[in-house]
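With this grant's support, we have settled on a layout for protein records. A representative record follows, to show the layout.
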Amino acid sequence: MPRTCDSSRSAAPRRPCTSATSRIPSVGLLLTLALLIGCQAKGTRFEILSFKDGPQSQVYTESFETGHFFIAADHNWSLAFEIAPNYVLPDDTPTGDAPADDDQQDTATPCVPIRMSQTLLIEVFWRAQPGRTHAESSQTNANIQYCLTAGREIISYEGAGFVSFKRSRDGRTLTGLVESSSLYPVRTVGAPVDLFGPCRLSGTFEARENRARVVAIQQGIRMKLGPVSAATYGMTSAN
C-alpha cells in the first residue's frame, strides 16, 4: 500500500513516497511500471518485454515526458527521455504504527526516502523512412540505453534496435517508433537488482529539439557509468 513520509521525521524533500525495497524497489513500484493489459497508448510510451524468468516473459509499460533531440555534426540523431527523480520509501521502513512496547520507541527507523529516476538514451545512425523502410528482425539503426537509478545504485540495459520517426514541418519536433530492440544488463554501480534481465524495448515517442538538454542528460549518465562506446553493440556511424 502506498505510504507518505512524515515530514517531521525526514530531511528529504516533501514529496509523496511509495513502497520500495531496501535497494532497488520492487518492479511495479520502482518504475511505476504497470502490467500491460492490452490497451495501446499514444504519446511517449515504452514497453519492456522481460525474459528474466526464461521463456515465461513478462510485459511492462511506462510513460515518459516528451523527450529531446538534436542532430550531431556526424549526422547522427541523439534522443533523450527521462522521468524526473521522485522519492520512495524502503519496504522495511516503519509505517508509523505504535511500537509494541516502550523499549522499541527509541530504536524506530526514521523515514528515509530513496531518490529514483529513469533515463532512456537513443543514438540513431541512419534514418529509416516510416512506411518505406521495412524493419527486419535482425536490422538495427540505433544504440539504445535504458538506465534505472535508485539512490546511488544504477543498472544500465544496453543494446541495439530499429527506430523510425518523422520530423515536423518546422523541424523542431520528432514523432516516431522504437520498432524493435534487444537490451541486456551491461553495467552497474553498486548492487542494484536486475529487474528485467535480457529484454526487448519498443514504443512510441515524441521529442523536441533541445541540444543543451540532451547533452546534459548524456553527461549525467556518463559521469555515473562512463561513456557508451558504439563498438559495444557492433554499431558504427553512417554519414
In short: The chain has one domain: 27-94+110-233. Residues 211-225 form the longest helix (15 residues). Residues 27-94+110-233 form one domain.
